[in-house]
Amino acid sequence: LVGMKIFLHPKKLAYDYEQEGLKDQIVLKFGHVVAENTPKGLAAKKFAELVYKKSDGKIRVEIFPNGMLYSDIEEINALKENKIQIIAPSTSKLGTLSSRWGVLDLPFAFPNYEAIQAGLNGSIGNTLLQSLEKEHLKGLAYWINGFKQFTSNKGPIRIPKDIKGQTFRIMQSNILKSQFEQLHAKAIQQPFDITFQSLQSGKIDGEENTLTNIYSKKFYNLQKYLTISNHGYLGYVVLMNQSFWNAQTDQTKKILTEAMIETTEWNEKHAKKMNEEQLKLIQKKSSIQIHELTNEEKKQWMIALDPLYDKLEPIIGKDLIREIKNLRE
Ligand code: LMR
Questions:
Q1: How far is the CA of 34 from the centre of ligand 1 (A)?
Q2: pTM value?
């Protein structure tokens, strides 16, 4: 008991910090829901390393992967309450703030990684980042993961009617829900960290995700079929609590900004490669049946889903729909 008292004594704590020269150290908690070996997991680590180095150890970013602190449905509120200082939710989940974010979720919105970058670095990305100001959130960057694929146990997915009647786990996004409804499939919005469990129990037949998420969370072990469909984008917006940001010195802001720019460049270079490499690992480690959509099949999906661009215009906005259509051409 006596020992415990000494350990918890505030003066003793202060002394320890001074000893280590860490008295003024700034600590930022960065939480995310994916595994470390993913585009987001590695970008978070890189950012923490860069910040530490650039600040000579004065700023420390503590990373909490795999939803250790907050699940994806909790993290936005936790950030607003400054319980955590940085998060990087998938943009799909920002639909809870504004349905305009759904523009990035539209089916086959981006034909390739170059188009994703053009969209995020251009006016679509800027418009969405600015919309965060009224939420008192500071948008720092977009990090890319890649394209979503389908996995299922019920049967191979080649053409739209193959998913009819199947149940899929999707992210918290009504825009995504409407895509499954359009094809007469059932979509259940669930946190990322219970997807494995839901697949295991058979509560859902399948899910849609990037190859790095399918690989790192071992969904491929529970699924018989994987379709390389590239039917939707999955990427992140890195967010900071606005008041926390405002309270920092110019020097700290400069360090965080520079580290974020370098990390984002790194992410842009590596995201595609990581997804390609992890597809190879899935092939090597499992007997999951893989089908890549032919151009003819892809056309069928686009014909079936394209009406959503007009249907969802009232909630996404004419301006954003026009811009995303331009990018597709
Ligand atoms: C998901 O919920 O499937 C993804 O958003 C997880 C992630 O953050 O990549």
A1: 7
A2: 0.92
252-270 pLDDT, tens digit per residue, is 999 999 999 999 999 999 9
Strand-pair partners of 61 = 28
Using the structure block, give the residue that is written with the tokens 């977009």. Answer: 142
Substitution candidate for ligand 1 out of 192, 196, 278 with most atoms within 8 A of CB: 192
CA angle 116, 120, 125 (to 5 degrees): 145
Burial (CB < 10 A; 0-12, 13-18, 19+), residue 132, is buried
For residue 192, the CA-to-ligand 1 centroid distance in Å is 6
**Cα–Cα distances in angstroms (integers) from residue 131 to residues 110, 128, 134, 136, 170, in the given order:** 22, 5, 6, 10, 24
The minimum-distance atom of ligand 1 relative to the CA of 93 is 5
Q: How far is the CA of 171 from the centre of ligand 1 (A)?
A: 7
Rounded CA separation 167/36 (Å): 28
pLDDT in tens, 56-68: 999 999 999 999 9
Helix/strand/coil (H/E/C) assignment for every residue in 101-160: HHHHHCCCCCCCHHHHHHHHHCHHHHHHHHCCHHHCEEEEEEEEEEEEEEEECCCCCCCH
User: Residue 61 C-alpha to ligand 1 middle, in angstroms?
Assistant: 21
- Ligand 1: residues with CB < 6 A are 33-34, 40, 72, 90, 145, 171, 192, 209, 213
151 to each of 14, 113, 292, 324, how far by Cα in Å?
Answer: 52, 21, 12, 27
Measured distance CA(256)–CA(47) in Å, rounded = 9
